[in-house]
Fold these 4 entries.
Entry 1:
Amino acid sequence: MLKSVMAKIQKNDEETKRILFEKFHDQVYRKAYFITKDHYLAQDVLQETFLKAYNHMDQLKNDESIGAWLSVIATRTAVDLIRKQKRSSGIPMENSLLEDEIFQQTSSSSVESEMEQEWLKENLRSVINELPTNFRAVIILKYGHDLKEQEIAKILGENIGTVKSRIYRAKNKLKSLLLSSDTMDGDSL
């Protein structure tokens, strides 16, 4: 079915584009919202993603991977949008990727366990916020989005060696910040 859809899209069939949009709208919106944490920005990313996809449909090699392809476009578009906002406003990139992905699991039903988990989440969030922006970005993309170094390099427009180095240095920095945070908390008790 997708092959006939692809052929119609490449012929600029508006009805087929609408069907494709309806089929993947929710998936792309969730990806965009996950990254931007803003409804309006996610709507912008959604629109831009489909415009880019329609314009570059001939580059899609495997018709069966259109959902994944749209997700990659949405991720890149959202990251680019956040970068543009950061440059123009000076606001640091948020760590919203990690907030949703890493901390979704809640175990135990006891209040004490839940409180401890909340404290750990808050502690990790605050420590991640202390990382320099370039370290925070690779940590979020690597562990929050579960992307490979090659994908991160493409998204950030960096060499893969640079990305690997940043991930390594970011993990070390995060580890040292967490350890110093633990010792400070232990001293205050």
Note: The CA atoms of residues 102 and 144 lie 6 Å apart.
Entry 2:
Amino acid sequence: MTTPRVHTSELRGTALANEIRARAASAATELTAAGTPPQLAVVVATDDGSSAWYVRSIARAAAKTGIQCTLVELGPKATAEQIRTSLTALSADPEVHGIILQTPLPDGVAFDDLAAAIDPAKDVDGANPLSLGRLTANLPAFAPATAAAVLALLDRHEIELAGRHAVVVGRSTVVGKPTAQLLLQRDATVSICHRHTKDLAEITRRADVLISAAGRIGLITAAHVAPEAVIIDVGTNPTDDGGLVGDVDTASVQGRVAGVTPVPGGVGPVTTALLLQHTVQAARRR
């Protein structure tokens, strides 16, 4: 039987990101006037081009919001001890309110070991294992900004979660696992798929809400989605021509699903805006 075509909404994040940044800018103005100018520090130990683009976008957004953004450039040959020393010093600096450890890291340097050196009170991207543990226990903590952006977009577009089946493709501690935890907190029934999942399409077709964070171009096609499902595409995959595409074959799912986020213009701008929002929240708590 042929599946009837439906109108597919583009679940854009730009307007939401603008609103979040505006609120962060207002808070930053108040904090600065009160003698606590919010400051975000980004530790970079890579010469990766896409990473550099992302860091620049954070710095530009911070400047427009009234948040000082300090880039700590350690270079691609930095040792684990050098990176840990920087994170420890920033954690102890009362003038720094938010800390991000940018990836990728140099070969042989483990992200999880170093993320533990970030003060949880300044861990605005939810990288410290303590932050992830508190998130799992439903205790106050900053969620990874990308995971938080997924939920913010679903709320923005009034997608009901309680009692719905959500499928998360990808199990990283940056996106997949924390997104699943946030969905559970909203009373969704959650399945997590990964590279060892047998018959991915059979599981994703059951999803009312499908979140793909696998980092594989064209992974999700019409064969993977249920009619009128909602898809959040977290993938950010560079193309040979310098562009950016997600995990979802958008042309394939158009007319079948109820909504899908674009790449770029979906999760990305909301993620950056939430990092700024988390920074002013951290500054308020100091």
Note: Residues 127 and 200 are 28 Å apart (CA to CA).
Entry 3:
Amino acid sequence: MAFQRPPQTEQSGTGTAPRRGRLRLLWPVAAVGFGLVLIHQSLGTAPVTSARQPDRPTTVATRAAGTPQATPSTGSDDGALPRSAPTRISIPAISVDAPFTKLSLDSTGHLTPPPADDTNLVGWFQGGASPGERGTSVVVGHVDTTTGPAVFVGLDALKAGEHVEITREDGIVARFQIDAVDTFSKADFPDDEVYADTPTPELRLITCGGTFNRTSKDYESNVVVFAHLESSSRS
């Protein structure tokens, strides 16, 4: 199973609520490159495209004043957290409780997917922002494997307003509120919208979706969850 490429060219949005305004694109070239790697590579199969590794975001813009943030004192006005790797993800609405593995790009510039032999494991792209850090944090997981359903099989059932909690190595739990859930054709995937850097802490959860093409043995779309940091606390 994987982030597969469909024959269609029109993206299909299935957002459950108006998405938050897209923030200024601060690294569009790198974002597009990473998007091509992530979306057109099969999880558990050989990669089919290449791109250079994106630089880590360096944005310092802040969230608008007045937005409530129940966060530990971090010296930031928008609730952004210092960098720390994630260790566990919890999504109560779809009964997800899974550990993380760190994902990197290989020597050819392709994202290494989470191991397909562990159905309850998610991957964090460690070349991007960590969950709760300013920027776009990217978390991916299998929808299924050859042995059956996997960790993100219910991702497309999530709704705006529901929550994702990510525990980090520093003992902080970052709580994200979901803004929208969309399904995009891989033939017309909005790389900038999904991967571009943001000046406040955001999260993207990504898995396969849409029709399974039995000829190519690929799904034709990707499910993407858009979320923003709502609060954080000590575990």
Note: The two ends are 34 Å apart (CA to CA).
Entry 4:
Amino acid sequence: MSRASKPSGVADVALLPGLLAGPMDAASVDSAAVAGGEGHRQRMRQRLLKAGPDALADHEMLEMLLFIALPRRDTKLIARALLTRFRSFGSTVAAPVSEMMSVDGLGEAGAAALKLVQAAALRMMRHEVATQPVLSTWDRLTEYLTASMQHERVEQFRVLFLDGRNRLIADEVQGQGTINHAPAYPREVVRRCLELHATAVILAHNHPSGEPTPSREDVTLTKEIVRAAAMMGITVHDHIIVGRGKWLSFRMEKLLG
């Protein structure tokens, strides 16, 4: 017995839902991935709360930060893409926003979340430095300067202004330049000291190359600032050069002049 043939042009009713739905868009795929990964996220939260942040790898820290900012995205892929691009957690949160946002899927909300983490960490470290005489918390000071400057792509010259008890009055970037030079002027350092009623300063700049060895220009500039400051009764306690994960003290190296 022969089967009746279907009229041409009439689709099989069983296929209609698929034909009408069309392909899944990116948002649908992300939503499905997030829904399927909620157990994974919960396990990460529990591990963080019970074992502390050291229990999380760099990509897991980034993933957790991003799924707070991007609840409808698969943040695991974004976190791994960020680490591929910037190499480490610290370099990622310190990266320029324009470069962060070149990573597919991050967007403005994700970039803002990462920058907020960097700002919060630096604010906490700065508070610890500011609440006690700087010279008695030297380790905290160098940690703060390293965290603030080691990932900068160009040289940055900053001055920490201190009062008569060596407490921090202000921490200011005085110049930002190229990969191997940042403009700094002795008269501007002294002028700002007088405006802030600072009686001492600590100078600092970074070397994007990663090596904190001072150049001849670094030594010359430091001696000029020391002389100009001394004429106004202002003490230069030190000049710190920050490299990648290490630093150099002019005072310890007997280079203050």
Note: The chain has two domains: 24-122, 132-249.
